[in-house]
Amino acid sequence: MPDIWKYDVFKLADRLVLDVYRLTSHFPDDERFGLTAQMRRAAYSIPMNLVEGASRGSTKDFNRFVLMANGSCDEIRYQLHLACQLGYIDQRAHLELAREYEKVRMMLTKLSASLRRRATVAE
What we know:
Elements: H1 8-24, H2 35-54, H3 59-85, H4 91-122
């Protein structure tokens, strides 16, 4: 079982969860169960999926959870765009976080490719 806590992608995604929580704490109260909750859920879903996948015991299962984390990454990137369009965050905050999540997405894509290669060799 890999120690996911040592992976750079996990460390970055974990840090970004806190950034999203701070950012969404200033959203309007009527978004508490809407965009605020969705953004937080998508943000914490990334490291949570990595933790769960790494603990599954097989490379194939780990990769399945990496792909789910990648989906959550794309989800949060859209939500940042939407929050900016609604005026809940400024363009600078949107672009900064979107760039960080693009890094996460690229790292997840590389991790998935590595896991697929490893699974193919193991078969």
